[in-house]
Amino acid sequence: MLSERKREVLRAVVSEYVNTAEPVGSRTLVRRHDLGVSTATIRNEMADLEEMGYLEQPHVSAGRVPSDSGYRFYVDNLMEQDQLTGSEQDLLNQLAGITTREADTVLASASRLLSQISNYVGLVTSPRIHTSRLTSVKLVHLDHRLALALLFTDNGQVESRVMVLPPEIEPADMENLAAYFTHRLAGKPIEEITSQLLDEVYEELLENVRHSCDLLGQIASALMAWLKASARGRVYMGGAHNILKQPEFQDLEKVRRLLALLEEEPILLQLLQRDPGTMVTIGRENQLPVMQDCTVVSATYAVNGRPAGTLAVLGPTRMNYAHVISVLEYMSGCLEQAFSGKDKD
Amino acid sequence: MLSERKREVLRAVVSEYVNTAEPVGSRTLVRRHDLGVSTATIRNEMADLEEMGYLEQPHVSAGRVPSDSGYRFYVDNLMEQDQLTGSEQDLLNQLAGITTREADTVLASASRLLSQISNYVGLVTSPRIHTSRLTSVKLVHLDHRLALALLFTDNGQVESRVMVLPPEIEPADMENLAAYFTHRLAGKPIEEITSQLLDEVYEELLENVRHSCDLLGQIASALMAWLKASARGRVYMGGAHNILKQPEFQDLEKVRRLLALLEEEPILLQLLQRDPGTMVTIGRENQLPVMQDCTVVSATYAVNGRPAGTLAVLGPTRMNYAHVISVLEYMSGCLEQAFSGKDKD
DNA sequence: ATTAGCACTCTCCCCAAGAGAGTGCTAACG
DNA sequence: CGTTAGCACTCTCTTGGGGAGAGTGCTAAT
């Protein structure tokens, strides 16, 4: 266990380095944080902390810099809660007030706000409806060739898609078809509706109903494509340019690689697949080589009480952890409100 | 008018500079392009070209670099047609083959491909349905509180949106309502359906029909919001990181500003609002200060013969103009094919 | 255990010198 | 008269040395 003074020193080093981005020496440390001892003592403490792996020295006659483990210890044991300022709260509260019904707009604004307040990169995933259940399938006849397929879920969402039908179908057939789909699929979590299950339903239909397989196949594959698309999930990114403000991203090639990564939606999506709660991934803790001097702080948000999506901030390991965590957790609430409020009316 | 030799020299300077990104001197010019005269002669020609404003000298003892007007002259008078390689064509042809019905996927891939082939930033706008006409409005009752609003356009597109209704409405009312909207709005180009027109219709409805204004207002505003959203248009961007490969973007602050700009969708949208055809905007010809050492080459694509959207490449003024233009024009065709093919089936 | 003092190390900045590249000018040439 | 060889000149970029500055670790004294 670290002595109280060592903890104090480590905390001071982190806070100083986060502010200045420059290796911090014993002198500046005693001057700016009243530690009550001399520089020599601090030097000894810092040497100890270095040996323990919490601090590093860029070169022998420079100050100290927190290592990944140093940040880790700081986050786990030393960090103090941060209070958002009033204006920050106001900014974030806008989210709940967006009038549009489009999730799109809300999420785009969220990622933007995140980057704006944190000065890092903001990331937000769309709410995943995986966990919600299908309640019914409807087919509505529109005109001679067009029908509308509707999926209802138990969290109040409705998705619709226009489908082109072959001319030989009767309105009654369509009702039967919809009823059958509902019968077979209702109550199932969206994520369990795989192509395998759909294939089964397809086979059954072929046996029981006397439709052209063409039509059935079309409907089944449209349903499938559509479920896939809505299950895919999107990632909204805002403020990518902010990383260029950080002194640790002066190396153009490094920045380029990171930016290229940020354009790969599937990778981001996988990256943001997280368990509920707040999580901090520091430097080497990240799997991807490009991100090994970045930190990702993530939180999840819920819709109607169920975990739905992730919001995150990506920045250098030298990050204002306390502040970012506060922002994320506050925004998590705002998003829940925005989405849950929307479903009610 | 420029002498044939001057044209030759200017062409050589542009081509050399585009390849090497370094000021080109008389020596390298005669060595790499067989101009048949000595360096001294070339020096004189270059001095003339500089005086005419087509070339510039970074400093007195450096080689020459094309000015914005130099590029302009090159593009307008000197450039030779570029042939795409087979593999480039294959890559672009993928676009037409995307099976998804989602415009989203096609456009995202398009911007990606554009950046991949050109090594600059690729931009694509979604097809604008402005010019198409509304044919009818339908309201379909779903369950006690939900209705589906449908808009049909004369190019075969259908847009649908779920609306929440107050309970007091009767199915017959809804049909009347839909019929009235159709009666008043059918045949109008989408872009003419402004909030002013909708307000008029709203007023008329209030007089003629005995519904709660609450409901009417709701429907009108939903319709409005929705038309706005589908008229808004989106911009797809790919390969933003590519600009970091360019030696002219070493200045981090400059890059940051440009990246920030690229995150502003409305600005991009305005930027890409272009008349049909291929267009090159070089350096200072751009309005925005951030872009004054960039070139935007844009082309438009049509859907069913009508101009629908823009695709563009953004890079440094030192750009491979001929190649980029070929790529854009080829892709324009691919996009038209992708979208027009889609509407048919 | 803490601290003052000191020698030592390493980076960063500045400056001067020299190499290199390219020019413009002048005078000679066909 | 257009073209070219030759040359002096200018400017940048690189290289290397020297000194200032910051910070350290160690030792001896408190």
SSE map:
Two copies of one chain form a homodimer.
Chain A: H1 4-20, H2 26-32, H3 39-51, E1 55-56, E2 65-66, H4 68-78, H5 86-97, H6 103-118, E3 121-125, E4 134-141, E5 146-153, E6 158-164, H7 171-185, H8 195-208, H9 213-232, E7 235-238, H10 252-262, H11 265-271, E8 279-282, E9 294-303, E10 306-316, H12 321-344
Antiparallel strand pairs in A: 1-2, 3-7, 3-10, 4-5, 5-6, 8-9, 9-10
Helix pairs in contact in A: 1-3, 1-4, 2-3, 5-6, 5-12, 6-12, 8-9
The first copy, chain A, binds a DNA duplex (30 and 30 nucleotides) through residues 23, 25-27, 37-41, 43-44, 46-47, 57-63.
Description:
The structure is a homodimer of 345-residue chains. Chain A has 345 residues and is α+β, with helices and mostly antiparallel strands. Chain A has 3 domains: 4-78, Arc Repressor Mutant, subunit A, CATH 1.10.10; 86-128 and 234-344, Beta-Lactamase (2-Layer Sandwich), CATH 3.30.450; 130-232, Enolase-like, domain 1 (2-Layer Sandwich). Helix content of chain A is 48%, strand content 18%. Chain A is built from 12 helices and 10 strands. In chain A, the strands form 3 sheets. The first copy, chain A, has a 5-stranded antiparallel sheet, sandwiched between helices. Chain A has a 3-stranded antiparallel sheet with strand order 4-5-6. A two-stranded antiparallel sheet of chain A has the order 1-2. In chain A, strand 5 and strand 6 (158-164) form a beta hairpin. Chains A and B meet through strand 5, strand 6 and helix 10 of A and strand 5, strand 6 and helix 10 of B. The structure holds a DNA duplex (30 and 30 nucleotides).
